[in-house]
Amino acid sequence: MTETETEKDLPRILIYEELCKGCDICAVFCPTEVLELKGNMMTVKNLEACTRCQLCDLRCPDFAIQVF
Questions:
Q1: What is the rounded average pLDDT for all residues in the chain?
Q2: What is the CATH number of domain 3-67?
């Protein structure tokens, strides 16, 4: 598998910094620990583990995260 094919298989996670208040709800609901809180901002720590379940997206009270 080429690097381009691998990149196509990975999900895309967008975190809107202006909306994220660092509540950590998305990370708590993530079953594969893809997200982590750094300071007061959510970050993606392990994109390869993402299963696209979208629990983070669904549980975010501020609509600050999207999974594609």
A1: 92
A2: 3.30.70.20
